[in-house]
Amino acid sequence: MPFKKEAVIAKSIELFDDDDPCIIHKSHVARHFVDMVEARLKAEKKDSIRLEDHPDISSFLDIDDPAGVVIRKLR
Amino acid sequence: MLYLDYAATTKPTQKVIDAMVATMREYPGNPSSLHAEGRKAKKRYNRAKKRIAEILSTHHDRILFTSSGTEANNFVLKGTSARYPAKTILVSTIEHSSTKKAAEYLEEKGASVRRIGCDTEGYLRLDELERNLREHDVSLVSLIYANNEIGTIQDVDRIADICHTHGAKLHLDMVQAPLHEPIDLANIDCDYASFSAHKFFGPRGVGFLYAKTKDDLDPLIHGGRQEDGLRAGTENLAAIAGMEVALEEAQDLWREREERIARLARHFLAVLRETAVEWRLNGPPLDKPRLKNILNIGLKGLDADDIVFRLDKEGIGISEGSACSSEIIEESHVLKAIGVDDEHIRGSVRISFSHEQDEKDMERLAHALEMIHENS
Question: Is this complex's ipTM strictly greater than 0.90?
């Protein structure tokens, strides 16, 4: 998933107080974002969600217009 | 949290904390000062150094306080290279990053460094060591004694014999060892050995180097006359006092702790065997010379970062064997060196526990891994 650079840094600051994350910290942040999406799919008992219905998720994704964008579970 | 990352660091015991606080309160002077407060601090410093030497059956002149095991390793490699620039340094392919990176740095500066391979359990190939010593003018062999990722303990008697037969000095990175076996430096035939307090329930930011002779060492930091002029900077007396207490506890209690640790290791692997998880133990089996508290497990079909993340969510803290290098995550050079296949390397995690855990903790971990396997 494409993550916004500023969202990655903000989460890195939240988790590590690190405003210049190395690749390991960036990957860990990405894992937190992915976990959030997985948790939402699980909570809604769906295989996919429409991004425009989830502004908290679209806030960290680098997608200009969330309208019509669907996040689908692959496995 | 169920903390299972003791190879990364350990929590100082209450006795260690008490010793450190007392030292900060009672010894505010600079050990280099000649007035009463300074002399008092110097006496405390010397007492700690003498006690550490006594615990390890050596002379206090051979102990050099550092900030860490990493610094101690750097001391030996860089010092030797500066003293013998035309000679070769040998390291193994499964060194801690402090030795690995220091060797790479020296190579970049023009030094000759050669790497000795290991077998599939991480034991040094002694024939390769001997051949390199025969074919090259070697000043130093620097080896990790007890491996921090897979637990392999090297046959130091044979290695020392081979090195000294060929006139090379031997440095052992013994950072992971003091909790698990008696360290008798009078009977370990090495020229240098590195230690770090936070690996044996002492404070972070302090360690020491055992040096049979300091003639080949070169200062990493210049300034005052501390540590025989080899390491300038006012001594961290509280940390040194904490290290003294931690080492004493570690060496007093290692046997009873180790019996428990071995039992827990066997129990964990037995429980894991009963699950549907496909796994392999990276490194030697439990009946070979090894640290029993470091279990590197390769889980087929899983990603290590995912395992670590999911276990963290379950309140279990373990480690993965990767390191960041600019913009890439490097796979463990140790696992590569012992021939672990890529699929298992990707799913390899390091579980490192202590006497503080019990059977229930190990069962909890095994079942959490089973759950991750089922949900993947």
Answer: no
